[in-house]
Design a protein that fits this description.
Shape: globular
CATH class of the largest domain: Mainly Alpha
Strand order of the largest sheet: 2-1-3
Structural class: mainly alpha
Radius of gyration: 24 Å
CATH superfamily of the largest domain: SecY subunit domain
Distance between the termini: 28 Å
Largest sheet: 3 strands, antiparallel
Low-confidence stretches: 427-431
Order of helices and strands: HHHHHHHHHHEEHHHHHEHHH
Strand content: under 5%
Number of helices: 18
CATH topology of the largest domain: Preprotein translocase SecY subunit
CATH architecture of the largest domain: Orthogonal Bundle
Mean pLDDT: 84
């Protein structure tokens, strides 16, 4: 990895992309320290142990702790993307039509996603502010009137759109996927704070006779982190190679090749989607806590969207599994894949072209996604279970989710860098 970065910095074009990405991430981190006017952010310390607040803090890159202008991060954009992608699956004919129009259709869908992000962002910002004001016993917003709430909603929604725009700039002009890189930067920025918290909890604020227990715990924790990183790295790179034969021979060209299908074709996107789908309803639920709190059905909903409860952990895992299957078939469209192979005069041995190829690839992808879904679900849920059983810090409970995102984004970014380096080598050779 270090050698790859060293070689990448030697190329002017790639070096410019890296510096541009770093600059955009710096702007994002700067924005996370600007508190929204009209609120008393210090009151959030009294409710810092709320699970949904920790999850939202993870997605926003610790911006929620200060209730900054970027507090909601890319969460509304992710939710909007999920809705738009679901609508493309024969639900809204117009969206289905756009999805088949190539680059022009993609731009229309992106525009629709932005408009939906605006709506969701404003609703979520109002609900979040009202909910936090209720949880802090109405001290979070000193002047709780309609004008103040609308102003805060506009500021937070604007912050979300700015963060979304920053992510798009990284995707177009920088290195890696913009949304993933922003969440990656947010998680990395939390690491020093989490390490400091663990040291204080297990070495400073304890009796001297229990130091050896803390030392054993930290050794086990470090080993567990290394094992999870190795496990995640292995699964992220694992793939199934489908043999491909070519009917149209070109002199000097090979007559066979293979089609690589990743075991986890969806990457870390399902984890990001599931985190967003847990935090968004939670933010809205908190707004109604004052008027509906205590009612059985409302308590049930609160429990369901709390990942620190058994039903909440099950829902979180179920969402990860569901999004793994959904996004795998979005990334690898068996219908389009079969069509492209047929147009190229290629085929999978012992498999009929067209519909037969589509069914075969769908079956393989289904089996691979089953393994990928189990892998993502286990890595994300096991630390949460450990936290609930042994009353561990919140940072450990979300450690699985954090490691999945960090390692996954790092590997994807490294692969993109390798692709850019390889492209440059081929260009130089041809010239």
């Amino acid at each position: 990895m270090l050698r790859l970065l060293k070689d990448a910095f030697k190329v002017k074009e790639i070096r410019s992309k890296i510096f541009f990405t770093i600059f955009i991430l710096f702007v994002f981190r700067l924005g996370t320290h600007i508190t929204v006017p009209g609120v008393d952010a210090s009151r959030l310390q009294s409710i810092s142990d709320l699970p949904f607040l920790n999850m939202l803090d993870l997605v926003s890159g610790s911006a929620m702790q200060r209730f900054s202008i970027f507090s909601m991060g890319v969460s509304p954009y992710i939710t909007a993307s999920i809705i738009i992608q679901l609508m493309q699956m024969d639900i809204v004919p117009k969206f289905v039509e756009w999805s088949k129009q190539g680059e022009v259709g993609r731009r229309k869908l992106n525009q629709a996603t932005r408009y939906l992000t605006l709506v969701l962002g404003f609703v979520q910002s109002l609900a979040l502010t009202a909910g936090l004001n209720m949880w802090t016993e109405y001290g979070f917003v000193p002047n709780p009137n309609a004008q103040t709430f609308i102003l805060i909603g506009i500021i937070l929604t604007t912050g979300t759109m700015v963060v979304t725009w920053l992510g798009e700039q990284i995707t177009e002009k920088g290195i890696g996927n913009g949304v993933s890189m922003i969440i990656f930067a947010g998680i990395i920025s939390r690491v020093p704070v989490d390490i400091k918290g663990l040291i204080e909890d297990y070495f400073i604020n304890i009796e001297s006779s229990r130091i050896w227990q803390s030392a054993i715990f930290m050794v086990v924790l470090v080993i567990a982190v290394l094992l999870i990183v190795t496990f995640v790295t292995f699964f992220q790179q694992a793939e199934r190679k489908l043999p491909i034969q070519y009917t149209k021979r070109v002199v000097g060209a090979p007559t066979s090749s293979y089609l690589p299908l990743k075991v986890n074709a969806a990457g870390v996107i399902p984890v990001i989607f599931a985190s967003s789908m847990i935090t968004t309803p939670n933010a809205i639920i908190q707004a109604f806590g004052g008027s509906l709190g205590g009612k059985p059905w409302f308590e049930t909903i609160q429990t369901l969207f709390n990942y620190n409860t058994v039903p909440g952990a099950i829902l979180y895992t179920t969402l990860i599994v569901a999004f793994t299957f959904f996004y795998a078939f979005v990334q690898v469209n068996p219908e389009k894949l079969a069509e492209n192979l047929q147009k190229q005069g290629s085929y999978i041995p012992s498999v009929r072209p067209g519909k037969g190829t589509e069914d075969y690839v769908s079956g393989v992808l289904m089996r691979l996604s089953t393994v990928g879904a189990l892998y993502l679900g286990l890595v994300a849920i096991l630390p949460i279970i450990a936290q609930m059983l042994w009353n561990l810090p919140e940072s450990i409970g979300l450690g699985g989710t954090s490691l999945l995102i960090v390692v996954g984004v790092a590997l994807e970014t490294a692969k993109q860098l390798e692709g850019l380096m390889l492209k440059r080598q081929y260009t130089g050779f041809m010239n």
